[in-house]
Amino acid sequence: MTENDSNENDNDLVRTFKSGDHTAFEKIVLKYQDRVYNLCYRFLGDKQEAEDSAQEVFIKVYRALNRFKEKSSFYTWLYRIVMNTCKNRVKSLEYRRAKTRVSIDDDQEKGEETFSAVTDKNELPDENLEQREKMIRIQEAIDKLPPDQKTVVILRDVEGLSYEEIADITKTRLGTIKSKLSRARLSLRNKLEGII
Amino acid sequence: MECEKIKSLLSEYLDKTLGNDEARDVKEHLLSCKNCSNDFFIMKSITGELAELEKAKAPAYLLNRINLAVKARPWYAKLLDFIPGSGGFRLPMEFVTFTATAALVLMIFSNIHIDQDGKTIIAESGIPQTTDIQAQSTDSSPLQLNFIPAGSHADMLDSQNVISVGSGPSSGNRDSRTAGNEEGQIINPGRLVSILNNIVQQAGGEVIAKEYEPLTGDVDTVTVKIPSAGYSSFIRQTENLGQFTPAAPSLTEQSSGPVLMRIRLNLLE
Predict the structure, then answer these.
(1) Which candidate, A10, A7, A54, places its Cα nearest to that of A35?
(2) Which A residues, 1 through 30, put their C-beta within 8 Å of a C-beta on chain B?
(3) Which of A139, A164, B175, B218 has CA 20 to 30 A from B49's CA?
(4) Whole-angstrom Cα distance, residue B195 to residue B163?
(5) Beta-carbon neighbour count of residue A133 at 10 Å?
(6) Which residues of B touch A189 (CB under 8 A)?
(7) How do residues B85-122 score in pLDDT, each as one tens digit?
(8) What is the DSSP string of A24-83?
(9) Do B217 and A185 touch (CB under 8 A)?
């Protein structure tokens, strides 16, 4: 699979898949796996959970692609699946148990693990210690946001999507998006006061 | 009071989505109010940091993991993908259970079984107890097995949804869902998967994929790759916890490649 292959137009890939050529699915995975994984990681704050969720997302895509009506763009549809999958993940009992266990037993390790998903700490010089610490604190602050606020702040501030795109993905009105984003940013401002 | 109103507008002011009048009011207020001005610049710094966060990259093996999980899906689920207009349609569990049972009974009594590549084979007498799975590799379809943990029948499920294995106490202990004990191991889906994971690692293998029950979010199926050297040990240790159906096949002496197994955890059946 070459880089050019993965740059094919989404609509073409979807139609190729629908015509029965399932190699198009691999191209879709290769094209979007990093974005999906990063979204899951930012939402869940855990490398293993992000990996499992990214797999779950693409399995859902595989199962539903034949029924995708192309009324919205493919990536909007994909991001909607990502966000719903992550929200369900957070709700699941197993996930909550795991998070509780981690926070009680292994808080220190969690911080390191969170960071290790973003960058290899061994590659960083000592002068970047402060930056590392800041990244960990930012992710922890994101983790503590309610799911709806977390969704909006990740899509807007991490992914850089427009209000309209976020409204389309979350099927929410623009006004609601703006108020949730405002609350999320103020909440982050309170959590990160003195760190940034 | 005015500060509270301004704070509620800072986010939109930052994104430049306010109307002209509101934007001018916010700007004038920020010039005269140190607290709100401070809030605004911290918020601006945070959004800057969020935009600059390094992008986490998917592990290189993710595509293989996804392909394996897609291949490992049951035939009736794959069939639904190609039925037009079946969006959101789910086969009732009773139908699935009935169909699977009927197929199993048919296979046993008609001496027919399906081999690892999905080919139908007429056996001389029932389901063979020994299968040559030498050629099993990550490219072929996994061995499909169900696993029923000991004591996982519905009547062993207490009101807290705790499943007891063995003879130990099981009722009224919510904490035991995550703990377990030596005499009567308390098993829940997460705990069972964790134990299986340990057994897989001890056998030198790896868990390649997990599938989740859509309603509960619990893991209901795991796909594992076990080296032939650790296969017997894996089966023996897993069977200490419950029972495989159909019975896990034995390896022949010539078997050398890794064994791919997709194990469905039957916790409520």
Answers:
(1) A54
(2) 25-26, 29-30
(3) A164
(4) 15
(5) 13
(6) 39, 42-43, 46
(7) 444 444 555 565 666 666 666 555 544 443 333 333 33
(8) HHHHHHHHHHHHHHHHHHHHH--HHHHHHHHHHHHHHHHHHGGG---SS-HHHHHHHHHH
(9) no
Q: What is the DSSP letter of B86?
A: -
- Which stretch of DSSP H or E encloses residue B259? strand B259-265
- Which residues in chain B have Cβ-Cβ distances shorter than 8 Å to A182? 8-12
Residue-wise pLDDT for A151-190, tens only, equals: 999 999 999 999 999 999 999 999 999 999 999 999 999 9
Contact B207, B68 (CB under 8 A): no
Q: Kindly report the number of other CB atoms within 10 A of residue B40's CB atom.
A: 23
Q: Is B148 helix (H, G, I), strand (E, B) or coil?
A: strand
Please give the DSSP secondary-structure letter assigned to residue B130. B
Q: Measuring CA to CA, which residue among B41, B40, B49 is closest to residue A131?
A: B49
A-B CB pairs within 8 A amount to 140
ipTM value for the complex: 0.80
| A41 neighbors A50 (Cβ within 8 angstroms) | yes
> Which structure tokens are listed for A62?
């595989």
- 66-125 in A: which are within 8 Å (CB) of B? 66-67, 88-89, 91-95, 97-98, 101, 117-119
Strand partners, A147: none
Q: Which amino acid is at B19?
A: G
Phi/psi of residue B22, each to 5°? -65, -40
